[in-house]
Amino acid sequence: MNLITDEQTIGDIRIFGKREEGGIYDLYNQTHTRGGQVVLEQMFRSPLSDKKMINERSSIISCFAQKNILFPFEAALFDMAEKYLVTDDQGKQAGTQSVLSEKDVANGVMAVIELMQLIRSFVERTEVLANEAWQPERIGILELLTDGAFEPVYREKAKARIAYGAVTAYDQLFRVREKAKIERLLALIYNLDVYLSVAGVARERKFVFAKAMEKGGAILKVKDVYHPGLTNPVANDISLHPEKNLIFLTGANMAGKSTFLRSLSTALYVAHMGFPVAAGAMEFSVMDGIYTTVNLPDNLGIGASHFYAEVLRVKKVAAELAMGKSLFIVFDELFRGTNVKDAHEATVAVSLAFARKKNSLFIISSHIVEAGEQLSMHPSVGFQYLPTRMEGITPEYTYKLEAGITADRHGMIIIRNEGILDTLKNGHKRTV
């Protein structure tokens, strides 16, 4: 069972990087194999929505992290084995014959033999046996390795040359007769590669493992959450539950609202994968879906303005909520694409409707602080803001959440500080 999300959300929280900057996937990607990279990407595209599955994966990675268990193969060995095992398939897909030379086949056979010997030794290590959550996969690997067809593999001496006739026999064994078993073995090793690489990330970055709770409880408690991509992040605490399931977030431009929303959304998204998160502690009710709207573009293809794009986005979320799904919803500066009066009325109406959905959680940021007066009458709405401290005419930002609403607006101060008006008036930028 997978978490529901969409490309807008994946783009908002930058799961996958762009040419100029890496994404969250890149931060967690320390895999040693090409197959591991593919599995990791699949996991990022398909977060889980099942408490048992999330906690099991989290337990596997957590145990590997605690015991500091490393991937047992050299990258060069696995590259050779992968090249040997997949070249024939690639040739068939392209309508060509295998392009492996006799030497490639011999090297590939030796690499697979060494790989099987090493993985058998790995799964029998005491510290690996102690990882209870990984036992089903460990047993699956061991059953494949101890299949009678592979018995000759364990009589071979490590790195020893193999006779031509034996190479031919092993080639038939690995790539023809028992190809399906070898493919299943590789798939399990790719999973192991992901677990161990993510465990390494958890150790290096001191990430924590979140506790997943039953779906529908609408609880999210995070201590010291921060954005994993920042060099010097500021951590924040947040708590949401059915009695306070919507936060109305205010703060001036550049105060850190969007960064905080991305930090929290990223943590919840990654936690649904069973991966460690950038926080001090975290527990959450499993959700059916996560939808964020942090950077919503105009849809010029259908002639939609920014406001209409916002309306369509709210409509999509409303349809999902109407089906009774438990969702985590983020809107950054809701209805900023229309005039202040309409934005005020729409923000209040939509926020109050959201707050009635007790099995879901919402965070709405806005510059329309006046909407807070009406929203404050609803007990399910909480208020947080990111403050600005003025040092003379220079705004300074704490990036630390505080309770309440702020009317901070420093747009004109920033414009004046940048000398824009002086440039327009005098033809040059004011020197500092």
From TrEMBL:
Annotated Pfam families: MutS_V
Cellular component GO terms held in the UniProt record: cytosol
InterPro entries per record: DNA_mismatch_repair_MutS_C, DNA_mismatch_repair_MutS_sf, MutS, P-loop_NTPase
UniProt-recorded name of the protein: MutS-like protein
GO molecular function: ATP binding; ATP-dependent DNA damage sensor activity; mismatched DNA binding
UniProt-listed GO biological process terms: mismatch repair
Domain of life: Bacteria
Keywords: ATP-binding, DNA-binding, Nucleotide-binding
Domain (DNA mismatch repair proteins mutS family) ranges: 244-425
